[in-house]
Design a protein that fits this description.
alpha/beta, Rossmann fold, 6-stranded parallel β-sheet
Length: 351
């Protein structure tokens, strides 16, 4: 039985998008009879899976992000020198992985998107870029979750492009599916929304990168019936802007929403965009969201160029358009975790 190690400071369900992503891979590998080891500071799994996993604990707390990364890499090196394994999959910028999964933003592009003349010369950014480049150069295979990631590699790191492969990430289609729309009216009524309300939904913790400020900027120019629901952030709610804070049953909000909006500056592949589509909710996202490759204008949503007037017009178009939940779902229904993990395994076997 082959042993596969997974690397990320946190791995588990409910810990974040990339963390849940790594957890899904761990579970699917267990189901395929691999031995699975996790090298992490924190894990979160149901009991039936936790007892099957081999956990190698990393210890750190109370330090800045760069120091944490350095301590994590140092301790990973110590652990790897003492144990045997067959493959190493990293969901983190760790030099020397068999598979390096690009589930975090590419720093080289993120710095450019921040549009700061000083960012590249800041010591922090220099170190992050160094670690990113070293991890990319040393990986045996680089896994991009969507075509956007591979396109960005060709632009910023062309020397690694020949070992980059697209494996489309999966989504939980049992939890997110168009049957949720059957609860739409009842849920809206229970939360005090009327049939006349047109509900926009934004989901995200890193609200600055994901474009919430742009969405808030245009809200006053939209019709009064348009209301914005913000999941993932606390704030003072108004008549047409409601802050939901951290939401556990996010599928209920996809069910209620008429339109999901994510004007992101950069997202390798926003899970929330896929969850919305799977739930039968049309989307507006940007070309810098990897999942935008599945958006068909006027069919399951729109793509905005991130200019205020364009985003406003795309929302107004959506308000006047009738979208079919089944068509939204069908556009991404092939994105299963089984297909994704099969793609990862095929890359490992071909090393």
């Amino acid at each position: 039985m082959k042993k596969i190690l997974l690397l990320r400071p946190k791995i588990g369900f409910g810990l974040g998008g990339a963390e849940s992503h790594a957890a899904q891979v761990a579970v699917k590998l267990l189901q395929r009879d691999y031995r699975v080891g996790l090298i992490a500071n924190q894990i979160s799994f149901p009991k039936e899976y936790k007892k099957q996993l081999e956990f190698y604990s990393i210890k750190y707390k109370g330090f800045g992000s760069l120091l944490k990364q350095g301590l994590y890499i140092y301790q990973v090196n110590k652990i790897l020198s003492k144990i045997s394994y067959d493959y190493l999959i990293s969901f983190f910028r760790y030099p020397g992985a068999d598979l390096f999964i690009l589930c975090d933003p590419l720093y080289a592009f993120l710095i450019e998107q921040k549009n700061s003349l000083f960012a590249p010369i800041k010591p922090r950014y220099k170190l992050l870029l160094y670690l990113e480049k070293k991890s990319l150069l040393s990986a045996k295979r680089i896994i991009s979750l969507f075509q956007l990631g591979k396109n960005l590699l060709s632009r910023f790191y062309p020397q690694v492009l020949e070992k980059a492969v697209v494996c489309h990430r999966g989504i939980d289609l049992q939890r997110f599916n168009p049957k949720l729309k059957e609860q739409k009216e009842a849920l809206r009524k229970s939360y005090g929304f009327s049939k006349e309300d047109y509900l926009l939904l934004f989901v995200g913790y890193d609200t600055k990168r994901k474009g919430l400020n742009l969405l808030l900027e245009i809200m006053p120019s939209l019709p009064k019936k348009v209301k914005l629901l913000i999941a993932g952030k606390e704030g003072p709610s108004l008549d047409n802007i409601i802050y939901l804070g951290k939401v556990r049953e996010i599928e209920k909000w996809y069910a209620m929403a008429d339109l999901f909006v994510l004007p992101t500056l950069y997202d390798p592949g926003a899970m929330s965009t896929l969850e919305a589509l799977a739930s039968g909710t049309p989307v507006i996202t940007s070309p810098y969201d990897g999942t935008s490759e599945f958006v068909k204008e006027g069919i399951n949503g729109y793509i905005t160029n991130l200019k205020p007037e364009d985003l406003k017009n795309k929302i107004l178009l959506a308000v006047e358009t009738s979208f079919d939940p089944e068509i939204c779902y069908n556009s991404i229904k092939f994105l299963t975790w089984d297909n994704y993990v099969d793609c990862l395994i095929s890359q490992l076997e071909n090393l």
